[in-house]
Amino acid sequence: MAGASFGEVTCCLIRVPVEVIKQRAQVFTNTSSYSVLRNTLQSEGFRGLYRGYLSTVIREVPFSFMQFPMWEYFKILWSREQGKPVDPWQSSICGAVAGSIASGITIPLDVAKTRIMLAEKNSALASGNIPHAIKIIFLEKGVKGLFAGIIPRVIWISIGGAIFLGVYEKVKLICNKHFTEKGYL
Known about the structure:
By secondary structure, this protein is mainly α.
């Protein structure tokens, strides 16, 4: 969990500016991504590209704290049931289920992160205060607003978890086989 969290914090250094540009380009549909980048840098400076960094990290760390232990747990259960280690395709399914559960639970943090990234420059939301963002979303749209976009997020994350964790398991098997054959293991 610590390794996954550190990885998420590091990945967010690249992911957040891309996400800020993508989301703003989606909202302001008659502008190109390059125009959004240029406008963000002109109006907010380099820091504008990182608006929502902390809220993204606060979303990703709990997600990782849930996804990876669940993935391992599901693999253990499946392995015990069948009496042998899981195959990569089975690991992929475990990853999809773990990712879907973790993404469903963390969706309010994702909604808050999105609102923070898209907020007007000097607004209260732009400050990045997650509890404040959640309160505003709840007051405006209720519980339903906190779970806006849950189906696409769960589908997207489950597909990603299946691919990422299934491929990881397959590569691990290939590497173990290779290093065993070479006498390194």
